[in-house]
Amino acid sequence: MKVLVAVKRVVDYNVKVRVKADNSGVDLANVKMSMNPFCEIAVEEAVRLKEKGVATEIVVVTIGPTTAQEQLRTALALGADRAVLVESAEELTSLAVAKLLKAVVDKEQPQLVILGKQAIDSDNNQTGQMLAALSGYPQGTFASRVEVTGDKVAVTREIDGGLQTVSLSLPAIVTTDLRLNEPRYASLPNIMKAKKKPLEVLTPDALGVSTASTNKTLKVEAPAARSAGIKVKSVAELVEKLKNEAKVI
Ligand code: AMP
C-alpha cells in the first residue's frame, strides 16, 4: 500500500512570531523554520504503518519554496522513501494547496493520504477536508488512532465530548491529531542516508493547476498587549472588584 504524506514548512513552534512593520504579514527573515508538528505526526504514522508491513512505500510531498526541501529531507530521514516538492514561492490559499495535492494524488495513486489536522502558522484546519472533497475520498479528521484492515481504515477521531470511530474505504484521507503518536527523532545515519533518497521537483504549471487566489490579506496585526494586573489585599477586595469594576459576577 502506498501512503502519501503532506508536510508543510512553517515557522518553528518555539519562535516568537513578529509582524512586519508595514502590517503586510509575518516577518520570516532569519526565522527558524521547521516541519509543522502535526505533519511530523503524519510522517511518524506512515513510518509505523510501514514498520507493521501495512505500507510498502511512503511518498512525502510539500508545496512551497525551494527551501522546503529541508523539511522533505527531514521526512526522508524519518523513514519516507521519496519526496515531491511542488515548487511555489507564492503565498497559497488552502484551496490552491488542496488542488495541487489532488494533482499529486492523481499522479501517485496512493491508498492512504495523511495530513496534519492543522498548520500552526495560519491555523486553517481545512486542507485535508478540501482534498477529500476534491478527490471524492472519504475523510477521517483529528485522528488519534489509525488501523488499516484489508481495504478499510478505522479512524478514531477526537471530537467534543469523546471519541468517534469511523470506518473508511480506501483510498482515504486522514488528518492527524496530537495524541496519535509521538514522533521519533531522526538518527545521524538516517539523516546522511536521506541525502541520497529521490526528491522530485514539480511546478503548479506542470501539474496543470492554477493557483490564482480570490483571497487578499488586507492587514496582519499583533494581538493587543495585555495591560499589567494588580494585587488585591483580601478576598473581599477581590470580590468587590469583580462585582463593581470588572462586572463579571
Ligand atoms: P491547514 O489546512 O493549512 O491548517 O493545514 C493542514 C495540513 O494540510 C497540514 O498539516 C499539511 O499536512 C497540509 N498542508 C497545508 N499546507 C501545505 C503545503 N503548503 N504543502 C504540503 N502540505 C500542506
From TrEMBL:
Its cofactor is AMP. Residues 23-211 form the Electron transfer flavoprotein alpha/beta-subunit N-terminal domain. Pfam families: ETF (PF01012). One of its GO terms (biological process) is carboxylic acid catabolic process. GO terms for molecular function: electron transfer activity. Keywords: Electron transport, Transport. It comes from the Bacteria. InterPro entries: ET-Flavoprotein_bsu_CS (IPR000049), ETF_a/b_N (IPR014730), ETF_b (IPR012255), ETF_beta_N (IPR033948), Rossmann-like_a/b/a_fold (IPR014729). Heterodimer of an alpha and a beta subunit. Belongs to the ETF beta-subunit/FixA family. The electron transfer flavoprotein serves as a specific electron acceptor for other dehydrogenases. It transfers the electrons to the main respiratory chain via ETF-ubiquinone oxidoreductase (ETF dehydrogenase). This is Electron transfer flavoprotein subunit beta.
